[in-house]
Specification:
Elements (H helix, E strand, L loop, with lengths): L1 E2 L6 E5 L5 H13 L4 E5 L6 H13 L4 E7 L4 H7 L5 E6 L7 H8 L8 E2 L5 H13 L3 H35 L2
Parallel strand pairs: 2-3, 2-4, 4-5, 5-6
Antiparallel strand pairs: 1-3
Helix pairs in contact: 1-5, 5-6
The structure holds 5-O-phosphono-beta-D-ribofuranose (RP5).
The site of 5-O-phosphono-beta-D-ribofuranose (RP5) has 10 residues, from strand 4.
Length: about 180
């Protein structure tokens, strides 16, 4: 387990070390928004007790939202949601088969009674932004950081558009 501070606000679980490259994108967004988190590798089927222990410990330390990322027949987010009343965001991951469709269905098709908010396959960035939006309901400073994040995102599009003419015009100019 790794935590960015003594009072994490988001608890992040991934089913395997192999999930880290995608989950890292969520952690980067949380870092950028200055949202402290605790993160662990815990598998719903390989280490079920580890999952429940992490959820209990994270809640005791003040975590308000969970993010659970898993591939395959991914039941991690559902298991986390079964052990907490805090909102749970599931990230279905592409694993070794079906381009992540198996994980998408397992995460999004939770039976009634135990909700999981599923983002897109490998949608780690949106999972972190959604967690931040939930926290921002009670945190005006975080809301301001989210607004700034959105402004930077829009500015990047403007910047890309400004470069477009040069890039495509250059290609055209090179054509016979
Ligand atoms: C899931 O199975 C993990 O979340 C991972 O996405 C997938 C494959 O795990 P490894 O076999 O790479 O450990 O439990």
């Amino acid at each position: 387990m790794f935590a960015t501070g003594p009072a994490p606000r988001v608890g992040v679980l991934m089913g395997s070390r192999s999930d880290l490259p995608t989950v890292r994108k969520a952690l980067e967004v949380l870092d950028d928004l200055e949202v402290p988190y605790a993160v662990t590798i815990a598998s719903a089927h390989r280490t079920p007790q580890r999952v429940t222990a992490f959820v209990a410990d994270a809640e005791a330390r003040g975590v308000q939202v969970f993010i659970a990322a898993a591939g395959g027949a991914a039941h991690l987010a559902g298991v986390v949601a079964a052990h907490t009343l805090k909102p749970v965001i599931g990230i279905p991951l592409k694993a070794w088969a079906t381009d992540g469709l198996d994980a998408l269905l397992s995460t999004v098709q939770m039976p009634g009674g135990v909700p999981v908010a599923a983002v897109a396959v490998d949608g780690a960035v949106n999972a972190a932004l959604l967690a931040a939006r939930i926290l921002a309901l009670q945190d005006p400073d975080l809301r301001r950081r989210l607004e700034e994040h959105r402004r930077r995102q829009a500015a990047a599009v403007e910047e890309a558009d400004a470069l477009l003419a040069g890039e495509l015009g250059g290609e055209k100019a090179g054509r016979p």
